[in-house]
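Design request, tokens follow.
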């Protein structure tokens, strides 16, 4: 009887609620990855990768985080693809995030997640309703994490942001069974791959020149 009362009245947990709980727990102190992930208990690997990808939504690369967090996200993606339990190696779990970074990241993440959660609904089941679909989602996260972790220097913008959003869209779509959002994540992953490939093929000088030309063109158009 209790279960019948709680089920319709209790809303399902949302990622934004997890982020608020983590921020409240930190209370002005740095927080280790292990403690952060402990607060996603019951929410699975998808919530882990969303939290780990949040710092990369800024257009500017964050020094020192892309490699370890990219590795952590890739491990989570592989475990999602293989339907394994959450796990990360000790050297990643022991890493601490300063509160200033944590506070800015989580508040930004709460704002984004709250807006996205209003738009999410169960649709396009072909992207989420089978084991092969889950494997593709996991490997999509792995590819995006690899692109995110590449040490691409300035002045190239969005090298972290595009794969970061791809990871979040795929993981959030899995949590909410929203195939449209997963498809958007795949699209961003493809765009990230094309962008990084263009930088590599053109070389630093060529890609920088194109970027400056595009920036000047956008400025003159405005």
């Amino acid at each position: 009887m209790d279960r019948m009362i709680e089920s319709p009245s209790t809303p399902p947990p949302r990622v934004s609620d997890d982020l608020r709980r983590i921020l409240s727990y930190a209370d002005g102190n740095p927080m280790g990855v292990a403690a952060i992930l402990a607060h996603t208990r019951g929410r699975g690997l998808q919530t882990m990768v969303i939290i780990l990808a949040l710092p990369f939504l800024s257009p500017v690369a964050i020094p020192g985080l892309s490699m370890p967090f990219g590795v952590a996200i890739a491990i989570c993606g592989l475990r999602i693809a293989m339907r394994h339990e959450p796990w990360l190696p000790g050297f990643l779990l022991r890493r601490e995030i300063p509160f200033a970074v944590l506070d800015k990241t989580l508040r930004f993440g709460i704002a984004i997640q709250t807006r996205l959660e209003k738009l999410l609904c169960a649709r396009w089941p072909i992207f989420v309703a089978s084991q092969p679909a889950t494997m593709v989602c996991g490997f999509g996260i792995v590819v995006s994490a690899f692109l995110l972790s590449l040490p691409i220097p300035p002045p190239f913008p969005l090298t972290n942001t595009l794969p970061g959003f791809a990871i979040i869209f795929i993981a959030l779509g899995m949590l909410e069974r929203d195939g449209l959002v997963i498809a958007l994540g795949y699209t961003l992953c493809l765009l990230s791959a094309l962008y990084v490939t263009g930088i590599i093929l053109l070389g630093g000088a060529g890609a920088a020149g194109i970027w400056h030309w595009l920036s000047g063109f956008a400025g003159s158009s405005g």
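Comment from the thread starter after seeing the answer: thanks! The two ends are 62 Å apart (CA to CA).
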